[in-house]
Every structure is written in structure tokens, then in C-alpha cells.
Amino acid sequence: MALFDHHVHTDRSDGRVSLEDRSVSVLVRPHGVSDHFPWRDKMRNDDDVLRYLDDAARLDLRVGLEYDLGVAPPLRQSTRESLHYMIGAVHQIRLGGDWVRFDEAGRFIKGLLGNAPFSEASRFDDEALRRRILDRTLQVVRDGINDVGIDILGHPTFSPLAALGDPEDVFPVEWQERLIELCVTSRVAIEVNEAYRVPHQAFLVRARERGALFSVGTDTHGEVGPLDRTEAMIKDAGLSEERFLRGERVRAKAQAGGSAESSS
Ligand SMILES: [Zn+2]
Ligand SMILES: [Zn+2]
Fold first, then answer.
1. Alpha carbon of 19 to ligand 2 centroid (Å)
2. What is the distance between the terminal CA atoms of the chain, rounded to a whole angstrom?
3. Do 235 and 13 meet the contact criterion of CB atoms below 8 Å apart?
4. Cα–Cα distance between 85 and 80 in angstroms, integer?
5. How far, in Å, CA of 242 to CA of 237, rounded?
6. How far is CA 150 from CA 108, 112, 166, 187, in A?
7. Ligand 1 center to 259 CA (angstroms)
8. What is the pLDDT of residue 1?
9. Which of 39, 83, 200, 219 fits a 20 to 30 Å CA distance from 50?
């Protein structure tokens, strides 16, 4: 059985491929569409999201969003529930009046800067700053789980910190455990992200041992390519296929059923 790819962009946000073309690429392997919310003049409000949902569902696509945690304006509950699933992801962190943006780290991690070093690295020598970013990350993820009802945590651990070196040095184990715990207790899936190659192996092993659910997300903005890195990450961390989401949410069902509480 092919793994379902939940994290695929289209030209409804910053992807290069139309919904129509995505309805063809599902024949290559199963995937949904999950564009950024918000996105400039394209995904501004409930009306834009509902139009997206209608247009994509008419093409038999499964439809999610990549909700920008800590930034996105609220959506109506009825809008959120009408989607097939919701990914929440962090792309910047606000600390007081300052923003820590992830764009440059993203380009570095994706290898788009060639051999150039991560230009912002020295800013993150400051351990107190790193701690504030980590704490604030837990907070926006918690809000996303409780208030937005996300089903999937997109590219967990991706941040400028992930560009600094060995993730086991950069991310304290206790912080990793807390992030995993947030997801496990709410049955929010941890995304294995092909584009950023996160989270790292030790994180995935910890999540597996805690009984986490997982989700495949290539985060492609263009072609639907092979899942090479994803499959290697899954294999190296020993994740089993039955723990992966299949294009639909499990949270609401579990909560409505009342009997599928997490064991932890
Ligand atoms: Zn993202
Ligand atoms: Zn994305």
C-alpha cells in the first residue's frame, strides 16, 4: 500500500502546479493538496478556503491546509471541519516585538545556497534566544492543537536551530519529549517531511516509542517525485505503516468515540 502524501502545494498558494494537474498526479501516487493559510491575496479568509475546498473536492482531491501557527487568523469551526485534514506548521516565531523568520534557514537546509554557510548562525549562538524560540514553539503548537484542531504537525523541528548542526545537540531531549508528548496525547500526527528532511532519526525513534502517529509530507511545490528520503527516514527509525495517516483525520473520530484515548 502506498503511503498517502498529505503535504502538497498548488498555485493556490506558492506552488507551481494547478489543482487540475494535481488531480492527474494522484495517479502517480496518492496525495492530497494542502496550501498555505494565509497566503497573500490568494488565501485570506474563510471564503477563499471554502472556494479552494470546493474546487479541489470537485476534482476528487483530498483537501487540507498548511495553517501558519502563531500567525494565521482564525477560521470558523465549520470551515475547519469541512476540510479533510489540517496541517499546522511553524514558519516564524514572534518574541516580544521581534520576529525570528525561518526563510533563510529553509533555503540553507534545502541546499539552495550551494556550499555557503548558514548566514544567520551567529545570531543563534545565544543560548537564551534558542531557549525562547523553543519555548514559544511549544506554545504555538499547543495552541494549534487546542484552538485550531490541527491533525498533523508539519515539518516538526524545522527552524533556524535545525540549520546549526547536529539536532541532538541543538534540541534538548527534554524539549523533544515535550513536543512529542503534545502530539501523542492529542493524536496529532508527526510529519516525516521530505523537503527539509525533518525530524531527525532520534526524534522519530522517541516518537515511535511513545506511540505517536505519523504522516508523510513531501512539501512539494512542483512535481510529485519519489519518496526517497521519506522512505529512508521511515526505515531508519523503524516506523510501521499502520501508524501513518491515510488522507483523513483521526482526531475527531477518536474524540467522538471517546474510547480511543491515548494510553499515556
Ligand atoms: Zn511549511
Ligand atoms: Zn508546505
1. 15
2. 29
3. no
4. 8
5. 14
6. 27, 30, 28, 10
7. 32
8. 65
9. 219
Q: How remote is the CA of residue 235 from the centroid of ligand 1, in Å?
A: 23
CA of 91 to the centre of ligand 1 (A): 6
Asked if 245 and 4 count as a contact pair (C-beta separation under 8 A), the reply is yes
Which ligand has an atom closest to residue 220 CA?
2
Measure 253 CA to ligand 1 centroid, in angstroms: 26
Q: How many CB atoms are closer than 10 A to CB 76?
A: 12
Q: Any residues with CB less than 8 A from the CB of 151 and at least 6 apart, and which?
A: 64, 85, 86, 87, 188, 189, 215, 245, 249, 250, 251
pTM over 0.70: yes
Q: And the C-alpha cell for 19?
A: 489543482
Q: How many angstroms is it from 143 CA to the middle of ligand 1?
A: 17
Using the structure block, give the residue that is written with the C-alpha cell 508528548.
181
Between strands 189-193 and 214-217, the pairing is parallel
Residue among 225, 223, 154, 216 nearest 16 (CA): 223
Q: What are the tens digits of pLDDT across the range 4-35? A: 999 999 999 999 999 999 999 999 999 999 99
Q: What is the CA(252)–ligand 1 centre distance, in A?
A: 23
